[in-house]
Every structure is written in C-alpha cells, then in structure tokens.
Write a structure and sequence with these properties.
Number of strands: 11
Distance between the termini: 23 Å
Helix content: 25-40%
Radius of gyration: 16 Å
Order of helices and strands: EEEHHHEEEEEEEHHE
Strand content: 25-35%
Number of domains: 1
Largest sheet: 5 strands, antiparallel
C-alpha cells in the first residue's frame, strides 16, 4: 500500500525523505547503491536534489531517523506483512516513489487525548509519557515533542505503522 509523505509540516521542511532513508540504513538491508539510484531518479524527475535537503543543516546537525509513521486507519487496512510504497506527491503527475518497497513489520494502536489540563498518549491502550512520548515524536520524524503536538493538536485515533522491529 502507498504511504505518502508531505515534505513540510507546520509550514517548515520536515526532511522526511532523508529521515526515512536514515532509518532504512540503520534498520533494513539497504545499500548505498540503492540510495543513489533513488536519489538520481529524483534528480532526473525534478531537476534538483531531494526536496527539503538543507546541506548546511545536515552537515551541522544530526538527522534523526524516521522509523515509523502515524496514520488514521478507519478501514483497518494496515496490518503486518503489507507492502509499504514510500511516495511523495500522490495522485499527481509529480508522483514519486523515493525508496524500495518494504514490508510493514507491525502496527500499534495510538490514541492522543486532550483534556483541559493534560495530553494523554496511549499506545496499544497503555499510557506513555515524558521521555517515551519524546522518543515517539523523534522516531516519527518530528524535531521535538512540541512540533509533534503542534501537528497532532486535537484528539486523534490511528495506528503507528512500523517498518522496523521497534515497538512501544
């Protein structure tokens, strides 16, 4: 199934293509040659390097890998074993698959609930807090927990789609 990714969140570049590749290098049997193949295909199609590439940032700041994604799944389509096609610009002439197809390793239910006094995050109906929420946000490609909650800024129910062995 297609997993499409935007290249900006909350009005700023999210570097998801680079972060996903970083995660693939650390968690999947992937080679530099495969990376270069996809990067060159992107360059041929768009006439530039990956959208969001900020070489100055990449050279001076570590890039945290994006090793899962959080999505609504009202029709319960995401299950372990399903193919993941990593794409940008879905349903457009600029459609582009930026990484090889990998299997979904696992899925976990996630709920984010807002009350007047706190935000509660439940993964598989277990509350996580503090450092675990921070790690969840970073692993999902956000730069901080604040950015994560700026995006998930109201009650949310969905799934964490994993392409690595990590679970919460």
């Amino acid at each position: 199934m297609t997993l499409s990714f935007s290249q900006t969140i909350n009005g700023k570049p999210n570097y998801f293509i680079e972060k996903i590749w970083e995660g693939l290098f650390t968690g999947q049997p992937i080679t530099s040659a495969q990376y270069l193949d996809y990067a060159n295909k992107y360059l041929s199609k768009f006439g530039k390097e990956w959208d969001g590439v900020d070489l100055e940032r990449c050279w001076h700041e570590p890039v945290n890998p994006k090793i899962h994604t959080i999505r609504k799944d009202v029709h319960n389509r995401w299950v372990a074993g399903r193919d993941i096609h990593f794409v940008i610009n879905p349903r457009s002439p600029n459609y582009f698959q930026f990484a090889p197809v990998f299997k979904c390793v696992s899925v976990q239910a996630i709920k984010i609930r807002y009350s007047k006094t706190e935000i509660t995050v439940l993964v598989d109906n277990k509350m996580i807090s503090g450092p675990s929420v921070q790690q969840l946000a970073i692993n999902d490609g956000f730069d901080s927990m604040n950015d994560f909650f700026a995006y998930f800024n109201k009650d949310f129910t969905g799934k964490i789609i994993h392409w690595t062995d990590l679970t919460y």
